[in-house]
Amino acid sequence: MNIIIAGGGKVGETLIEQLSGENHDVVVIDKNAKLIERLVNSYDILGICGNAASYDVQMEAGVDSADVFIALTQTDELNILSCLVAKKAGVKHTIARVRNPEYSKQFGFFKNELGLSMTVNPEYAAAREIAKVLHFPSAINMESFAKGAVDLAEIKLKQDNPLCDTALSEIQRKFNVNVLVCAVQRNSDVFIPNGNSVLKAGDRLYITASRKELIKFMKKLGIYRHKTKNIMIIGGGKVGYYLAKQLSENGGHNVKIIENNLSRCEFLSEALPDVRIINGDGTDRDTLFEQGIESLDAFVALTTIDEENIISSMYASSLGITKTVAKINRVSSKVLESIGMDSAFSSKNIAADRIVGYIRAIGNSGESSVQTLYKLVDGKVEALEFFITSDFGKTGIPLKDLKTQKNTLIASIIRNGRVIFPRGDDTIQTGDSVIIVSKSKQFRSINEIFK
Questions:
Q1: What are phi and psi of 153, to 5 degrees?
Q2: Which of 101, 121, 299, 385 could be stapled to 372 by a disulfide with Cβ–Cβ 3.0 to 4.6 Å?
Q3: Which helix or strand (DSSP H or E) is residue 244 part of?
Q4: How does DSSP assign 159-210, residue by residue?
Q5: How far is CA 324 from the centre of its chain?
Q6: Phi, psi for residue 450 in degrees, rounded to 5
C-alpha cells in the first residue's frame, strides 16, 4: 500500500519502522530537514520537507495516489486539517493523532462529519493498558480480545511456582482450568509451545483464558492478587491524567498524583476532583514517604524521563510494593528484564500497533481480516483477532484436517460469547472471532493462517 505519514517524531518513526518492514511504500512529511534526512537514511522510505497541511506538499508526496494518510504531528489541529486536505485530494483512509482531552468526546464527530477513518490518542491508549494491569495485578501485562471475552495475560514463573517443570499437556488435568499457554519466552528465545513443552523457572508465559478462568488459575498457582486500591502516580501529564480519570470513574481506588508543575497541579485539581493532587518532586525520597509510599498497592511512574521512571519504580519495588509500572519510550524491554522490571508501557508502541492493525484490516477488504493486533516480546510474537465472514473458505472443517503455518497457534475461538479452546474436532464458523498467536508472520487475513 502507498502510505503517507505526516510527522516523524516518536510515534511516526515507530510506525515507519513497522510499515516499511511490512513492505509498504512509505513517504514521510516533516518540517525538520535533519529529521527527514535521518529517517530516509535509516529506512527504505521517501521524505518530503514541508508543511503537512499544504496541498502542494501533499501532492509532492503523492497524496493523489496514496491509500492511507496518517497525521502524527505534535499539534492536534494540524493533524485534523492535514487529514481534511488529504481527504479532499482523494485519499480514502485518513488517520489523525488527537491527544487533547477537550476533544476526547468528539471522536464520533470527527469520523462522521469530517470523514476521518480513525483517531488515535497514544496517551489515552497507554492509560487504558496500565489500568488493565492495575485491575488485574497478578499479571505483568494484560490484553483483551472480543470485547473482553478473552484475556491474554503475561506472567513470569518464579522458582516456587507449581507450573515449573510441568508439561503443558498436564495443566488441565493438574489444575482443572480452561487456559492455554500460547507463547513462552525463555531468556532471549521465544517459542510457540506444544503439549510436550515443559515450563521452567524464569519463563515468561502468555496465557489466554476468560477472566473467570484466569482468576481461578492464578488462585491455584498462589499468585492471585486483588485489584489495587491505593495507587500513587508520579507525573501528571496526559497519561497520568487519563489514567487517574479512568481509575476514579471506575471507583474503588484511592488515587494520588505527585506533579512538580504548579499550574499543571491546578488544572488536575479542577479536572479530577476525586483524585488527590500533590505539588512536589515524585523522585524525592522524603516526598514519597510523606505521601505514604510504604502503604501503597501500586506505584506508577509516568514522568517524561525514562530513567526517572525506571529508578523510582525499582525503589518502590524495593520497599515491598508488589505492583510497579513505568512508562518508557527509549529503553528496550531487554534492558528492563535484565534489571528485574516487569510492567512497562510505551505509548508510541501501543499507538503504532493500533494503526498497523487498522492498515492490515483495510488491506484485505471483504476478507476475514484483523480486528485486533498486539505485538509481544519486542515484536517477535503477534496476537491477532480475526472476525470470520462468509469469505473464509474453511468453515465447518475439523481443525485436525487443516494445516496451519509454522509457529502459529489457534489460541481460542469465541462463538456467541462462549470461549472455545480448540481441539482437533472443533471447527471455525461464520460469525466466530478467532485468536491467533504467531511468531511475527504479519498476517493480514485468516486465510493466510492455513497452508
A1: -110, 140
A2: 385
A3: helix 238-250
A4: TT-TTTT-BGGGHHHHH----EEEEEEETTEEE---TT-B--TT-EEEEEE-
A5: 18
A6: -105, 145
Beta-carbon contacts of 373 under 8 Å, excluding residues fewer than 6 positions away, are: 353, 354, 356, 357, 360, 382, 383, 384, 385
Cell of 258: 505527585
Q: Which residue has the cell 510441568?
A: 166
| All three cell numbers of 381 | 510474537
* 154 beta partners: 141, 206
**Domains present along the chain, CATH in parentheses:** 2-120 (3.40.50.720), 230-345 (3.40.50.720), 362-449 (3.30.70.1450)
Q: Of 227, 217, 255, which Cα lies nearest the Cα of 136?
A: 227
Phi, psi of 349 (to 5 degrees): -70, -40
Rounded distance between C-alpha atoms, residue 118 and residue 133, angstroms: 26
Q: DSSP string of 13-79? A: HHHHHHHHHTT-EEEEEES-HHHHHHHHHHSS-EEEES-TT-HHHHHHTTGGG-SEEEE--S-HHHH
189-215 pLDDT, tens digit each: 999 999 899 999 999 999 999 999 999
Tens-place pLDDT, residues 269-302: 999 999 999 999 998 999 999 999 999 999 999 9
